[in-house]
């Protein structure tokens, strides 16, 4: 089954009078959604009790949880103090994920910081492997994200390189980011299929099927990602409609997290409805 859900709580959740993330689990289930990505981009600040409570409610309402790790992590850094702080943020993400029962941690690789991309991605690879060896726990999968800015580490090939031959790592394929950093190359189902075929070639069919996905429409410039948009955008794309036939063709079961600007749950539901309508037509 494909799971659909939002990145964090959209404003309408709070406007309806809710205050706590644990309450979002029933709210999402009532909407028809079944995944949620907890946002720790600005640091992991959640205490154990709050994490446990989110976990309990997620379980009760059949919401698959993932956690977005802090943006400060740079797996490719050479500076010893930045290595240490990146490890600390990785570790805190792991602990919080474990407490809430999140099985996936989405994480940014970082940036080359003046070094070549090739050297930088090799360092990131070693950093990630060492971290995973150290925690020695396969119940939380780390998911390096395909990034939206041209200068960031984490293009499609780099993400495949990080994930190849390691069961503890799955890609977060952010199609909006990919489209933004390649200035609009995802226009048709065939364009999406090319991406999926590269993934199958790099990490295998089974792991491609269960990958982590971020989807949103994103405004871009020469440098790549500029701003997350909503499904109302008809200029930049990419459009979820074009991914659906590929999901169907390869029998994919990813977790799809919507990162629309302020309408992440609303648009996650739109994605799910589009997918279900396509499946009905097919039968
Ligand atoms: Zn991200």
Written overview of the protein:
There is one protein chain. The chain has 283 residues and is α/β, with parallel strands linked by helices. The protein has a single domain, classed as Divalent-metal-dependent TIM barrel enzymes (TIM Barrel), CATH 3.20.20.150. The chain is built from eleven helices and ten strands. The strands form three sheets. It has a four-stranded parallel β-sheet with strand order 1-10-7-6. A four-stranded parallel β-sheet has the order 2-3-4-5. The chain is globular and about 50 Å long. Bound molecules: zinc ion. Zinc ion (ZN) binds next to loops.
List keywords for this structure.
binds zinc ion, single chain, 4-stranded parallel sheet, 47% helix, 283 residues, TIM Barrel, alpha/beta
List the helices and strands and how they pair.
Elements: E1 3-6, H1 11-15, H2 22-31, E2 35-39, H3 48-60, E3 64-68, H4 80-100, E4 104-107, H5 117-135, E5 141-144, H6 156-163, E6 172-174, H7 175-181, H8 189-203, H9 205-209, E7 212-215, E8 218-221, E9 224-228, H10 240-249, E10 255-258, H11 264-282
Parallel strand pairs: 1-10, 2-3, 3-4, 4-5, 6-7, 7-10
Antiparallel strand pairs: 8-9
Helix pairs in contact: 2-3, 3-4, 6-8, 8-10, 10-11
Residues 68, 106, 108, 145 line the site of zinc ion.
